[in-house]
Amino acid sequence: MLLASPIIFWQIWKFVAPGLYRHEKRALFPFIILSSLCFLGGAAFGYYVVFPPAFRFLLGYSADFLSPMPAVNEYFRLSLRLLLAFGVVFELPILMVFLARIGIVDVAFLNRNRKYAVLINFIIAAVLTPTPDIVNQLLMGVPLLILYEVSIVAVWFFGRKKLPYGPPPPAGNEETNE
């Protein structure tokens, strides 16, 4: 799936691109590149940092009379869930910048709701981690907190800027009641 994703995304882009204006394509291109890098970075973090303790936890259910013998499909299921979960979770800064660009969130909103974000981050970590142990939940919850802080900085840099003199004037093609 990871190997096929560039081709899949290219096909989606070829379908969507003809309907976009040139300025929309220019605005969307950085999001595509950065979201791909964030997804791959999250998948790599999940595989190299989180997967070893998660797999050790699953192998920890052994005794003298019980030896763990995970099947290949269980191994792939665990690794695929971790790759996808961490890939999606690492998209948080991109999502927040996108929401800021369309005017839904801003830095003040993110700072004001930080305590709720901490709670939601750990709920997401508890739901998305495939094992019930606290170590793996922390290995997802702490990066989520860090990504939330990165999101605040990214929104500060790349979010929609408020104009100092108020909203822009209406477009010139409006009818007047004269």
Q: How is this structure best summarized?
A:
The chain is built from seven helices and no strands. It has helices at 5-16, 22-59, 72-89, 92-101, 107-112, 114-128, 134-158.
Can you offer a commentary on this structure?
70% of the residues lie in helices and 0% in strands. By secondary structure, it is an all-alpha fold. The chain has one domain (20-158). The relative contact order is 0.11.
In terms of structural class, how would the helical and strand content be classed? mainly alpha
Mean pLDDT across the residues is: 80
Largest sheet: none
> Poorly predicted ranges (pLDDT <50, ≥5 residues)?
none
What is the rounded Rg?
Answer: 22 Å
- The level of helicity is 55-70%
Number of strands: 0
- Helix-strand sequence: HHHHHHH
Please give the structural blueprint.
Blueprint: H1 5-16, H2 22-59, H3 72-89, H4 92-101, H5 107-112, H6 114-128, H7 134-158
Helix pairs in contact: 2-3, 2-7, 4-7, 6-7
Tags for this model:
single chain; 178 residues; mainly alpha
